[in-house]
């Protein structure tokens, strides 16, 4: 018998990597929403049958889209949220507005489950305690039980030390069957194992030596802001970590190293190689020029992590009990 499929509404869908992982976990979106035109084009290019709306979530009115009511899952990978203490009382904070809009949207569409991904600090740090408390209380008032946890993508087969903060919330009676996914029992591949074949593809004589040296997982790819310069692999600390793996993180390459590239030179990553580090499949085409494409990749949730969390939610919605756990209501 075929596995049960679930419906979802995804906000801040970006390049669709999270939706791809959730699709593998059994969720079919009735709609995806993102404010960036190039990201919407990426999702449409790869899943033309999905209903993609390019607009700000704050402006979305579910009453105009009744198909979004009562979906099984409301999901989203929200932009980095600043702590309440860091935002002035009169300062307009778009990221915080999105977080609150997501909670208010839940109270309108009434999904069975909520899955939001953000920075680990939102889950762990004291300066976000006010936010966690507000969110947990709002969800409880709406009839949902909230679970908070930080997961590292490297524990689910992704060659990156990439931590994400998750908020899962489930309505009665599904919350009783929820448990967080267990890490893989196999280590994630190294950067060399992940990119070695691509580094050698155009005849670079240093590819084999390079792959042996790149013998660890990489640091988290950083997508950066639309308000800063061209595509690179992140702040100084990230670039230093990439340099230790034999990667020049100051910018991105247009092409793979070829036979004329010196054997002892330090290569840069192409956009496609960055996607490989994120475990975005080769047939998932990223729209836009180099910097715009890389930002979509850097901001994405790796599909294997999205799939693992999605399967945990799907199990709860199916009423399949997982391993014992203790929900973290607040810190």
From TrEMBL:
Keywords: Methyltransferase, Restriction system, S-adenosyl-L-methionine, Transferase. PROSITE patterns: SAM_MT_C5. InterPro entries: C5-Methyltransferase (IPR050390), C5_MeTfrase (IPR001525), SAM-dependent_MTases_sf (IPR029063). SUPFAM superfamilies: S-adenosyl-L-methionine-dependent methyltransferases. It comes from the Bacteria. Its EC number is 2.1.1.37. GO terms for molecular function: DNA (cytosine-5-)-methyltransferase activity. One of its GO terms (biological process) is methylation. Belongs to the class I-like SAM-binding methyltransferase superfamily. C5-methyltransferase family. This is DNA (cytosine-5-)-methyltransferase. The lineage of its organism: Bacteria, Bacillati, Actinomycetota, Actinomycetes, Kitasatosporales.
């Amino acid at each position: 018998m075929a596995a049960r499929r679930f419906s979802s509404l995804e906000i801040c869908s970006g390049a669709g990597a999270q939706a791809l992982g959730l699709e593998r976990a059994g969720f079919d979106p009735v709609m995806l929403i993102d404010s960036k035109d190039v990201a919407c084009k990426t999702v449409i290019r790869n899943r033309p049958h999905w209903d993609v709306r390019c607009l700000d979530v704050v402006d979305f009115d579910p009453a105009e889209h009744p198909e979004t009511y009562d979906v099984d899952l409301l999901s989203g990978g929200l932009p980095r949220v600043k702590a309440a203490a860091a935002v002035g009382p009169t300062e307009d904070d778009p990221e915080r507005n999105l977080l609150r809009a997501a909670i208010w949207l839940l109270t309108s569409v009434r999904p069975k489950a909520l899955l939001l991904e953000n920075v680990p600090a939102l889950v762990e740090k004291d300066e976000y305690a006010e936010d966690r408390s507000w969110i947990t209380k709002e969800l409880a008032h709406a009839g949902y039980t909230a679970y908070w946890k930080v997961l590292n993508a490297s524990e689910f087969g992704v060659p990156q030390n990439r931590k994400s903060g998750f908020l899962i919330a489930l309505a009665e009676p599904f919350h009783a069957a929820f448990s967080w996914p267990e890490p893989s029992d196999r280590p994630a591949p190294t950067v060399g194992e992940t990119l070695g074949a691509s580094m050698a593809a155009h005849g670079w004589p240093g590819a084999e030596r390079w792959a042996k040296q790149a013998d660890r997982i990489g640091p988290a790819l950083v997508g950066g802001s639309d308000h800063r310069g061209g595509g690179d692999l992140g702040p100084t600390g990230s670039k230093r970590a990439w340099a230790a793996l034999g990667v020049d993180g100051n910018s991105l390459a247009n092409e793979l190293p070829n036979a004329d590239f010196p054997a002892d030179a330090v290569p840069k990553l192409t956009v496609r190689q960055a996607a490989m580090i994120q475990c975005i499949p080769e047939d998932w085409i990223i729209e836009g020029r180099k910097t715009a494409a890389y930002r979509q990749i850097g901001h994405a949730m790796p599909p294997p992590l999205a799939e693992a969390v999605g399967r945990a939610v799907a199990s709860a919605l199916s009423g399949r009990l997982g391993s014992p756990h203790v929900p973290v209501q607040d810190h």
